[in-house]
Design a protein that fits this description.
Elements (H helix, E strand, L loop, with lengths): L2 H24 L4 H22 L20 H17 L2 H29 L3 H7 L22 H6 L3 H20 L3
Helix pairs in contact: 1-4, 2-3, 2-7, 3-4
Length: about 180
């Protein structure tokens, strides 16, 4: 793992909280922007929830559910969340900062995680040749190429993915309060 990947891995969560404060300050939501942005936010939350219920971290290579379409459905879900909240905030600085965070923080983390998976699971290389990093395939991997697997609510709970729903709900509530208290 590169030095920057290690740094990016450590700072991504605290940086996310700092960004949330900056986001709230920069955001200029309207009811329309909230409605439009919610489409992407709900999609991102659903994708993250589904992915978290399929992944058994460090135990087996996840290739079922959304992992049959993209190697990184959790990050793709996060990107959808970012797009949704960017649309809600109606400020191009927000979008620019999110793009910068993706390239400076998340892309190096994704690469480092994939390097780890390649070392941990010999089958990862073949999987990576067939399944794109982020932009999903139109069809899932054929069943013969990945073991059967179904969504596990236990895994969803163990990974505490419900925190994404709680955080997104809180941020939407704050945006509604901001619209009411500081209109315009």
């Amino acid at each position: 793992m590169s030095k920057w990947s290690q740094v990016a891995r450590r700072v991504r969560v605290p940086l996310g909280f700092a960004f949330a404060i900056l986001y709230f300050w920069l955001a200029h939501p309207t009811w329309r922007s909230l409605g439009i942005g919610m489409l992407a936010v709900i999609s991102g939350l659903c994708l993250r929830a589904l992915a978290s219920g399929h992944v058994r971290k460090n135990e087996t290579l996840a290739t079922t559910g959304p992992y049959a379409y993209t190697r990184n459905p959790l990050y793709l879900g996060s990107i959808l969340l970012g797009i949704g909240f960017s649309l809600m905030g109606r400020n191009w600085w927000i979008g620019l900062l999110l793009v910068a965070m993706f390239f400076l923080i998340y892309l190096p983390v994704i690469r480092a995680e994939e390097a780890f998976l390649m070392q941990r699971f010999p089958e990862f290389q073949g999987y990576a040749r067939q399944v794109p990093r982020l932009v999903p395939r139109l069809r899932p991997l054929p069943k013969a190429e990945h073991p059967a697997g179904s969504f596990s609510f236990e895994l969803y709970a163990r990974h505490r993915e419900y925190n994404a729903l709680v955080g997104a709900t809180a941020l939407v509530a704050l945006l509604i309060i901001k619209m009411k208290v500081w209109p315009g």
